[in-house]
Structure formats: structure tokens, C-alpha cells
């Protein structure tokens, strides 16, 4: 352990170890090391080359300011073997072409280690350095912009190496050169700031999206009882990306109770974090109402929620914006709420909103979608919800013409939802890759289950389809086919489905239920009345 953050990280790790079901995507882990440099020193780090010092960059960071040589700074134990090291990295200058900033693992010395490098030629590379001689093990195109923070993660487990940028798996390799070693930070003819260095053990290997993939953490038979009081998102909503570390909603803000439309609308418009507890059914004026960043909206008991109006998570529509604006809405949790008779959408996520967790809700019928996610939004998890007879249930990607906003985004997880006699869009997907649809229960679907269109990549994994003629297919209406990988689904009195193509790897760890046990697991815990209430119960 190292530095002040180690104690906090250990406490969080201990809490997560208690969650034995898939309500959290973070696999059980032990924290070996943590340093955020807020103590103002670099005690425990040994540097070679460059000019290393703790400096201020919004918070305290570890800065290497020279640009004329190799520079390394290492810490930790030479006996560390299987672990993941993660750090935030901001390149500030490149002195020439093909320069880089990097994160090191299993370092034997300053000239022998594995490393994940962001290069000035807009690539990310997974490499090894052996006595000063480098070998590229994997690479991928990656925009690298000066003075921009990136979260790098290098996972070394046995002979398997994985590199991540902002929560996305970018390179994998198999290599046996180094079995153990410490961690480090590096620059090559470049300057950079480093922060929030964490080392943990016990990571879990997610599947790659191959049709023959089988997650190593798939338990046989019925799953154990899920956590009913946890407040932290899993799936894509848990991924550190876009400057947001997971989804915490209003955690840390005031807890307020509302029972009228005027009180509720005033609270969701407030700036800053807050936990808003909805008491009873509130009649909202239509159609939808804007929710500002850093909010948890949670129903008290099993019968609270809204009728006559829905929630909008996102800025006003602007087709001219093609990259996330700085003021995009983010960090929203919506839990334990009933939605009925909405005149537009029950929940709408749009305009590059990110890190949204929609969990343990119930919605019936309304004019349009139950949960629509569109216009560049990403890092969303939709889990443990009961969609009850909804027609246009879940749209992911609004229009075939939205490529400029949607391509490379729309990263969404749908798990343990009950699609109960819904008609279509469960979900209907454009552009997003990967989109992860796993452990959901579908029954008596009217039209189709999952549709992949417009070059989307959808992993449909271990779901239970009952009385569903068309569980999943490629293309829909005038939208051309996307890609869809189907893995070990349980088909009861249902059609075979249509699949084809490949899907990008899933970048987070998760626990799956055996497909033919999904119905039992979902029906036992889906919908409202199953979760703890923030501010009312410990979590």
C-alpha cells in the first residue's frame, strides 16, 4: 500500500467483495498501491532521466517536464506478478515525430518491461522493451491530443497482456518474457503529467465478442441473491472515460424528498450533486423534463414514480455538434421508479450525455419509447428493469443519418431486464460497437427482440427467449445490416435468430448467469421495490 488513497481504495475493494452478483461490473480486487500525489511529494518513486517533480495541474500531479531524452519513474514491488496498473496521463509536448508517453508493468529495470504507449503519430501500442530493444505486441489507431487527459490501463495476467485507453480495450497479446516486476511511468522525447496511479489484483477476463467466446466467470445454475442496497453502476456506466470515473449520481450531495411536481422539477434543475427521493406517484406535465448532471433520482418503496411526463437527460438538440461538448449532461442514476402514460419518451438520453445508470425501474405504455438513447450518448447501463407491454421499447441510435454524432459512441449495456410482451426495439441498434445485451428475459415479443443495423456491433449473450419468433436479426426496415454475435442464448419455443460478423471486445468485467436460468433470476429481482434507498439504508 502507498499514499493516502490506498486506504480509501482498500475500503471500496472490501465493499465490492461483498457484492456476489452482477450489480457491479468491478471484479473482486485487492489494492496493492495507490498514489494521487496530493501529499505533495513523490516518495517511493525512483526516477531516471528527465525532470520529475510533483506540480499543480488542477490537482497535484507527477510531472515530467523534459523533452530531450528517455525518462522513467518506477515504484512498487519487483515481486508483483498478476495485476492491473492504471493511471491518468496527459501528454504536454512532443519533441519530434513518433514520440510517446507510457505506462509500465512488470518492469525489471529501466530498460526491460512491458508498456502501453500513446504516440504522437496517433497510435496506441502495447510493447515490450528487452535490454533497450523494443517489440510491438499490438497496436491501434488512437487520436492523441496534447494537454488532454487519457486513462491508461495495463493488465498483466499470466502470459496475457491487455491494454485499455479510457476504458476501451485497445490491444491484447500473449507473451512470457517477464513474469513479475514493478510499475512505472515513462516519456520518450516528450513531457507529460501523471495522476491517480492505482495497482490492483484479481481482475476478470471479459469475453472478446467471438461467437465461440465463453466467459471464464460464468457460474452454472441459478445465480445467488444480488445486492439490493448497492449504489454503484456496472457495465458501460462503470467505465472510466470522458473525464468521468464511473457513475455515482448524486453521491455526496444533499438528500431531498419530493412528492409534488413543482418540488421535483426544481430539484432536478439544481446544479451540483443531490439525491432526490420520490415519494408516491407524481403527475408531471408533458412531455419531458431536463435533468442536470450529478443526480440520483430514486423512488421510495415499490409504488413511487411518474405519470403523464418523462425525463430528458441531455442538452437541446443541435445537429451541428459532432463531438461531446464540455457541458454535456453526465453522471445520472435513475432507480426504483414507475413510469406510465408518458406523451413522448419515458426516459430520453441525448446529445452526448454519458455515464447514466437506469436500474430497477418499471415502465408500461406511453406514446413513444421507454428508454431511448441517441445523438452521441455513451457509457450507459440499463439493468434490472421491467418493460411491461411497451411498443417502441428501447431505441439506440435515432436515425441512419446520425453517423457524425453516433459513430464511435452509443456504448451501452442492457442486462437482467424483463422484456414482458414488448413489441419491438429491445433494443434496435445503430452505429454502437460494442453494445452488450446479456442475461435478459424476453417473453411473447410481438415483432422482434434485438436488431443490429448501420454497422453496429451487438453481443447478444446468454439471454432467455420464450415464445419469441424473431429473437434477434440483422437490419431493420430501411436500415442496412449491422453485426451481431449470439453466444449461448436459451431459446424456448422461439426462432433461431440471425447473426453475423464480429463485435468489439467488452471492456469491463462482469458476472453472467447460465442462459436457461436467466428467467428465474430475473423474475426474482427485476423492477421496483428491490433496491436500497440512498440516504435511508447503508450501502
Automatic annotation (TrEMBL):
Subcellular location field? Secreted
Q: Which domain of life is it from?
A: Bacteria
GO molecular-function annotation terms? Answer: pectate lyase activity
**GO BP terms:** polysaccharide catabolic process
Domain Pectate lyase, chain residue ranges per copy: 251-471
According to the record, the signal peptide region is: 1-29
Keyword Secreted annotated: yes
| Chief location of this protein within or outside the cell | secreted
UniProt keywords, alphabetically:
Carbohydrate metabolism, Lyase, Polysaccharide degradation, Secreted, Signal
Ranges of compositional bias, category Low complexity: 200-216
- Could you tell me which residues belong to the region Disordered? 199-228
Q: Name one GO cellular component term.
A: extracellular region
What is the similarity comment for this entry? Belongs to the polysaccharide lyase 1 family.
- The name this protein carries in UniProt is Pectate lyase domain-containing protein
Amino acid at each position: 500500500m502507498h499514499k493516502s488513497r490506498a486506504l480509501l481504495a482498500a475500503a471500496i475493494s472490501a465493499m465490492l467483495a461483498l457484492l456476489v452478483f452482477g450489480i457491479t461490473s468491478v471484479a473482486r480486487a485487492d489494492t496493492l498501491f495507490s498514489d494521487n500525489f496530493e501529499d505533495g511529494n513523490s516518495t517511493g518513486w525512483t526516477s531516471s532521466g528527465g525532470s520529475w517533480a510533483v506540480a499543480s495541474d488542477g490537482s497535484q500531479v507527477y510531472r515530467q517536464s523534459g523533452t530531450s531524452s528517455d525518462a522513467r519513474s518506477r515504484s512498487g514491488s519487483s515481486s508483483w506478478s498478476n495485476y492491473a496498473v492504471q493511471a491518468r496521463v496527459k501528454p504536454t509536448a512532443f519533441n519530434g515525430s513518433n514520440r510517446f508517453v507510457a505506462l509500465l508493468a512488470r518492469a525489471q529495470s529501466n530498460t526491460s518491461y512491458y508498456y502501453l504507449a500513446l504516440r504522437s503519430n496517433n497510435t496506441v501500442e502495447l510493447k515490450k522493451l528487452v535490454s533497450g530493444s523494443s517489440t510491438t505486441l499490438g497496436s491501434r489507431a488512437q487520436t492523441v491530443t496534447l494537454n488532454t487527459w487519457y486513462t491508461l490501463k495495463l493488465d498483466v495476467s499470466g502470459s496475457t497482456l491487455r491494454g485499455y485507453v479510457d476504458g476501451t480495450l485497445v490491444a491484447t497479446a500473449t507473451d512470457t518474457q517477464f513474469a513479475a516486476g514493478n510499475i512505472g511511468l515513462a516519456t520518450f522525447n516528450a513531457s507529460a503529467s501523471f495522476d491517480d496511479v492505482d495497482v490492483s489484483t484479481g481482475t476478470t477476463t471479459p469475453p472478446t465478442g467471438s461467437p465461440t467466446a465463453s466467459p471464464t466467470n460464468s457460474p452454472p445454475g441459478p445465480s445467488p441473491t444480488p445486492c439490493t442496497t448497492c449504489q454503484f453502476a456496472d457495465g458501460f456506466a462503470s467505465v472510466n472515460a470522458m473525464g468521468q470515473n464511473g457513475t455515482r449520481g448524486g453521491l455526496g450531495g444533499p438528500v431531498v424528498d419530493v412528492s409534488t411536481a413543482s418540488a421535483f422539477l426544481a430539484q432536478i434543475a439544481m446544479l451540483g450533486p443531490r439525491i432526490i427521493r420520490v415519494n408516491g406517484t407524481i403527475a408531471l406535465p408533458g412531455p419531458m423534463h431536463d435533468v442536470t448532471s450529478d443526480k440520483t433520482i430514486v423512488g421510495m418503496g415499490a409504488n413511487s414514480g411518474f405519470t403523464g411526463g418523462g425525463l430528458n437527460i441531455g442538452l437541446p438538440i443541435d445537429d451541428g455538434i459532432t463531438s461531446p461538448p464540455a457541458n454535456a449532461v453526465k453522471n445520472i442514476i435513475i432507480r426504483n421508479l414507475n413510469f406510465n402514460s408518458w406523451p413522448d419518451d419515458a426516459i430520453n438520453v441525448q446529445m452526448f450525455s454519458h455515464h447514466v445508470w437506469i436500474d430497477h425501474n418499471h415502465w408500461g405504455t406511453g406514446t413513444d419509447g421507454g428508454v431511448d438513447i441517441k445523438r452521441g450518448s455513451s457509457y450507459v447501463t440499463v439493468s434490472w428493469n421491467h418493460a411491461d407491454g411497451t411498443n417502441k421499447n428501447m431505441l439506440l441510435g435515432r436515425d441512419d443519418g446520425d453517423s457524425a454524432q453516433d459513430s464511435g459512441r452509443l456504448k451501452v449495456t442492457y442486462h437482467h431486464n424483463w422484456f414482458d410482451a414488448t413489441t419491438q426495439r429491445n433494443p434496435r441498434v445503430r452505429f454502437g460497437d460494442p453494445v452488450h445485451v446479456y442475461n435478459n428475459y424476453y417473453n411473447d415479443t410481438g415483432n422482434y427482440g434485438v436488431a443490429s443495423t448501420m454497422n453496429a456491433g451487438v453481443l447478444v449473450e446468454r439471454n432467455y427467449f420464450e415464445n419469441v419468433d424473431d429473437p434477434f436479426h440483422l437490419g431493420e426496415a430501411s436500415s442496412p445490416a449491422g453485426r451481431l454475435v449470439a453466444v449461448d442464448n436459451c431459446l424456448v419455443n422461439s426462432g433461431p435468430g440471425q447473426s453475423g460478423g464480429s463485435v468489439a471486445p467488452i471492456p469491463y468485467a462482469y458476472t453472467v448467469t447460465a442462459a436457461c436460468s436467466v428467467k428465474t433470476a430475473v423474475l426474482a429481482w427485476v423492477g421496483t421495490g428491490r433496491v436500497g434507498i440512498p440516504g435511508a439504508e447503508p450501502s
